[in-house]
User: Which sequence fits this backbone?
C-alpha cells in the first residue's frame, strides 16, 4: 500500500462537486497517478490531501482541480498524519520507504504501476533510468522537478498585456529539443527503425547514405525517440501554459515545444490530455487565455539540459577558482590575525566501544561490496564515527545517517544500537537498494529509509551523522542538526566544492564573517583544503599537503564556531589512524 501525501490550500463543496486549490506539484503527481491508473486511481494508492494554510490570500501559483468522484482524504492544517510531516510535500510512504521530491515520487509511483498493472505504460525508459539521477546532481532532473514548475508559476502570474515575456527556462527547453538525439541503445534503435544491421564498430555509417539516420529529426520526445516519464511530467505542466497563451504565438516562437506537445497528445490517443482536461477547472481566473499580441522568449542558440550544472563547481563569475601560492600565503596571514586556535586535535579515544568480531558480515564494510583495497580504510573510518555516536546515543534516540550511500555507517549503527531508530537518508535509488538488501539479510527492524534530497527532509531527530558528505552537503547536514537541536558527528569531504545558494552562505560564523576575509579568499582556502594527499606516497608534495590539512582545519573551525554561537559544545579531532583517509577531520557537537 502506498500512502501519498499532497498539499492543498482550499476546498469547496458545491452541489456534489469537490473543488480543491493545490500547488503545481500536487497537480503533477495527481495527474500522473490518474494517467497510470485511468479511469480510477485504484485501491493500492491512498491519496491524502493535507492543508498547508488555513487562511490563504489569493494564490498566484496554484490551480483548482475537480476531485469529484475521487476517493481521497482531507486533513486540515492542525491534524496532519505523522508521515506527512517527515518531508517536504509531496511525499509518500510505502512500507519502510519515505520518498520526497517530485521526480522521486513520480518514479516510485510509475515503478509500482509497472510491477502491478496488467498492461503497464512503458515510460521509465532504457533500463528504467528515466529521471533516476537526483536533482542535486542532474540538471535534467532539476529541470523536470523544479524549473518547469517554476515556469508554470511565472506564466500563471503574468498579467494580460499585449507583450508577454516568457521565463528563460522555456527557451532552454526549446533549444534542448533541437539537440541531436542521444540514447544508450542507438544501434538497436537504428536497426529496428530501418531494418538494417549497424554495429558500434561501424559508427560512421549512422550518418552515411546507406542508413540516413537523422539525429535531429528523431529527437521526437524530451529524452529521445520514445515517450518517457519526463514527457508526462512536462506535458502536465506545459498543458497549463498552453491554456494561457495564444496557440499561434506559441507556434511562432516555440515550434519545437509545440510539435513535441502534439506528438505527446497523439502518442496515446489523447489519453494524457484527457486526464489533464478532466482534472483542471478551467473557469478559474489564472487560466483564462491571454490576448498577447507578441511573445518574447530567449531561445539559446545551442543548449542541452543534459550538461553539468556549473554553479556547483566553486565558480567565481564564469571562471573556475584556482589557487596562486603567494595569494594563498597572504590569505593565511589574514587567518592568523584572527588569533584563533585552528588546528584539530589527535584522536584521544584509546579503546573501541564495540567488538568487530561480533559484527556480522553485512554490517561490515565487506558486506557493502567495497573493493578489497578500501576495506581496511573504511573500517577505521566507520570505527571512529561509530564510537562517537555510541558515546552520545541513548535508548529511543533517532539517528539520521545523512548521505548514507549503501549504508556503511547507518547499518553498523543499527546493529550496534538496537534500541535506537536509524534513518538512512539517500537520494540515489541504486545505493539505497543495496542498503535495503543488506538490512533485510541482517533482519534489522530499526531502520527507516528516506529517499530525498537533504533539503526535503523535515523530520525531528536526536543525532545527525555524516561520513564524507560532499562539499556544501556537510553544511546542510549541520543546518538540519541546528534546526532540530540535535547532536552531530560529521566527517566532511570535498571542501573545494563549497558554493553559496539561498540558505547557505560563507563564511558560516560571525567571527569569520566580521573578519577581513573576502568570499573569494574563503573559497580559495576551501579549494586548497582539497590539496591533501597520502603523506606516505613518495610522489606527494608534503608541504602542499600540510597546507591543505591546515586549510581543512580553517574551514571546519568556521563551522564549529557557528555551532558554538548556537549553544553547542564542540570537539575538533582527527580520525584514527590519520592515514585512513586524507579527509580525516571529525566535527562533534553536543548540547
Assistant:
Amino acid at each position: 500500500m502506498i500512502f501519498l501525501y499532497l498539499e492543498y490550500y482550499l476546498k469547496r463543496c458545491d452541489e456534489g462537486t469537490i473543488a480543491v486549490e493545490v500547488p503545481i506539484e500536487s497537480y503533477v503527481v495527481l495527474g500522473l497517478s490518474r494517467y497510470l491508473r485511468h479511469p480510477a486511481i485504484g485501491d493500492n494508492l491512498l491519496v491524502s490531501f493535507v492543508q498547508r494554510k488555513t487562511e490563504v490570500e489569493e494564490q498566484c501559483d496554484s490551480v483548482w482541480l475537480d476531485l469529484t468522484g475521487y476517493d481521497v482524504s482531507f486533513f486540515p492544517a492542525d491534524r496532519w498524519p505523522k508521515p506527512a510531516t517527515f518531508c517536504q510535500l509531496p511525499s509518500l510512504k510505502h512500507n519502510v520507504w519515505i520518498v520526497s521530491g517530485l521526480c522521486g515520487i513520480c518514479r516510485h509511483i510509475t515503478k509500482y504501476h509497472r510491477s502491478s498493472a496488467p498492461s503497464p505504460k512503458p515510460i521509465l525508459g532504457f533500463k528504467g533510468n528515466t529521471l533516476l539521477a537526483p536533482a542535486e546532481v542532474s540538471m535534467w532532473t532539476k529541470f523536470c522537478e523544479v524549473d518547469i514548475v517554476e515556469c508554470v508559476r511565472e506564466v500563471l502570474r503574468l498579467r494580460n498585456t499585449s507583450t508577454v515575456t516568457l521565463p528563460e527556462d522555456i527557451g532552454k527547453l526549446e533549444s534542448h529539443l533541437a539537440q541531436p538525439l542521444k540514447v544508450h541503445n542507438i544501434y538497436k534503435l537504428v536497426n529496428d527503425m530501418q531494418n538494417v544491421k549497424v554495429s558500434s564498430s561501424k559508427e560512421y555509417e549512422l550518418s552515411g547514405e546507406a542508413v540516413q539516420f537523422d539525429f535531429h529529426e528523431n529527437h521526437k520526445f524530451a529524452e529521445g525517440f520514445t515517450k518517457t516519464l519526463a514527457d508526462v511530467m512536462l506535458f502536465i505542466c506545459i498543458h497549463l501554459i498552453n491554456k494561457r497563451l495564444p496557440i499561434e504565438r506559441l507556434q511562432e516562437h516555440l515550434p519545437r515545444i509545440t510539435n513535441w506537445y502534439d506528438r505527446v497528445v497523439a502518442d496515446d490517443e489523447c489519453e494524457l490530455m484527457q486526464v489533464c482536461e478532466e482534472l483542471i477547472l478551467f473557469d478559474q481566473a489564472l487560466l483564462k487565455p491571454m490576448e498577447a499580441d507578441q511573445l518574447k522568449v530567449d531561445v539559446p542558440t545551442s543548449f542541452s539540459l543534459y550538461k553539468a550544472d556549473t554553479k556547483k563547481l566553486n565558480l567565481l563569475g564564469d571562471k573556475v577558482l584556482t589557487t596562486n601560492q603567494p595569494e594563498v600565503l597572504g590569505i593565511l596571514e589574514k587567518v592568523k590575525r584572527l588569533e584563533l586556535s585552528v588546528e584539530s586535535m589527535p584522536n584521544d579515544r584509546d579503546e573501541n566501544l564495540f567488538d568487530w568480531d561480533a559484527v556480522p558480515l553485512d554490517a561490515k564494510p565487506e558486506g557493502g561490496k567495497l573493493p578489497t583495497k578500501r576495506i581496511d580504510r573504511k573500517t577505521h573510518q566507520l570505527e571512529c564515527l561509530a564510537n562517537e555516536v555510541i558515546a552520545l546515543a541513548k535508548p529511543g534516540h533517532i539517528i539520521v545517517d545523512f548521505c548514507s550511500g549503501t549504508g556503511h555507517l547507518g547499518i553498523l549503527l543499527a546493529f550496534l544500537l538496537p534500541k535506537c531508530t536509524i534513518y538512512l537518508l539517500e537520494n540515489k535509488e541504486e545505493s539505497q537498494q543495496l542498503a535495503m538488501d543488506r538490512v533485510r539479510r541482517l533482519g534489522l527492524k530499526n531502520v527507516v529509509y528516506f529517499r530525498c534530497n537533504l533539503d526535503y527532509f523535515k523530520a525531528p531527530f536526536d543525532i545527525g551523522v555524516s561520513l564524507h558528505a560532499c562539499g556544501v552537503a556537510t553544511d546542510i547536514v549541520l543546518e538540519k542538526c541546528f534546526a532540530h537541536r540535535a547532536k552531530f558527528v560529521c566527517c566532511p569531504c570535498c571542501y573545494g566544492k563549497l558554493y553559496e545558494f539561498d540558505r547557505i552562505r560563507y563564511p558560516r560564523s560571525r567571527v569569520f564573517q566580521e573578519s577581513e576575509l573576502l568570499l573569494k579568499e574563503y573559497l580559495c582556502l576551501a579549494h586548497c583544503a582539497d590539496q591533501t594527499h597520502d603523506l606516505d606516497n613518495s610522489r606527494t608534495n608534503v608541504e602542499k599537503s600540510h597546507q591543505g590539512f591546515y586549510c581543512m582545519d580553517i574551514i571546519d573551525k568556521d563551522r564549529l564556531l557557528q555551532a558554538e554561537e548556537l549553544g553547542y559544545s564542540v570537539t575538533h579531532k582527527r580520525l584514527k589512524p590519520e592515514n585512513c583517509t586524507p579527509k580525516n577531520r571529525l566535527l562533534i557537537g553536543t548540547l
Observations:
- The radius of gyration is 26 Å.
- DSSP finds 17 helices and 19 strands in the chain.
- The mean pLDDT is 87.
